[in-house]
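Task 17 of the worksheet. Students: predict the tertiary structure of the chain below and write it out as structure tokens. Keep your answer in the requested format; marks are given for formatting as well as content.
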Amino acid sequence: MDLHLRLAHWIRTHPRTIDVCLVLAILLLFVLPFAADGVPGYTLIVGVSMAVTVPLVWRRSRVVLSAGLVAGVSVLQLITGIEPVPAQFVILITLYTLAAHGPRWAGVGGLGLAVAGAAIGLVRYGDMIGLGPGQPVLTTVPLFLILLFLVESLVLLAWTLGDLSRSRRLAYRALEDRTRRLEVERQQERDLAAADERSHIAREMHDIVAHSLSVIITQADGARYASAQTPELAVRTLGTIAETGRGSLREMRRLLGVLRGDETASTRPLPTLDDVDSLVQSVRRSGVHVACRRTGSPRGDLPPGAELTAYRVIQESLTNVLRHAGAATTAEVVLDHGPRGLGITVDDDGRGAAADPATAGARQGIRGMTERVRLYDGSVAAAPRSGGGYRVEAFIPYTQA
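Model answer:
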């Protein structure tokens, strides 16, 4: 930080120290010499100087009180006829402080009082500067007007500088508040983005791991029972387990590579609706009879993200069939391209409402499906069927042009 910036910061953060130093400097330069020289009437000069100078110590902490003391002493001088002292210029400092730090009514009132006091002071003490009654009118009036203009200009200048300082301080404070609000909003946006990213990662991990593990567990159970009777079937089942595990591992590596920002990570295309048939085939190899039907024709476009969402809905629904529906289950997947969007229905004739609560989990899959579909203004409904089994229905509208 530059020296002048550090100095300005120190001045802003130590106002009382600055004011005390200012009072000491004024007393040292404009009061102490009169006391040291013992000039006639120095006691009165020192007393008046102290009376108008010491209140500057509180000029920013007690603005109106400090200005009132200075104004009271000055008015008392005009009334009693006590001559001005060299330290009387602190009136300009007081007027500046009123305009800069005091309430608006006090600043305006102080300006009016200072303007009137300057004019009255010139009349009251005119003989001290050659404006006495014995002087020629042609000389006195122009000189009086010139002095009045100069004095009132100093008064207006002090007040104007104070008002400018006030405006600058308020603008600086507004900028600080705005910067603080922006920092808070930026932190909130980062927190929201992090929370959204965590939810996204959780959905991806669940979809990848849950489906693959469900297939592996189902195939492993089948291989265990088939190994005693039909070893060839067990070998094929173990091959399916290995293939599913490798595919899951590839997906996991791809996801972790993206999270690490690894530019060399796999960037193969994400699943779309065209990959539903492969998904159905993998579930069929696990022993579940799955049929897939497509009805209607697309009347609009689904963005790639929406197609991935539709794929994940079907994947999660079939995973739940593998996990909860029971043995010898039949499932059907229906993709209906309607006039407003894509409808997805996954039915099975498994246990439905009678599914084992211990294996039902925390409904993380249904929650993840709902979050995904809502991103595209869609809806999801999942519930047991009245005649047995379970049904998942989802709707994803087409992209509006």
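Marker's comment: Residues 215 and 283 are 7 Å apart (CA to CA). The longest strand covers residues 289-296.
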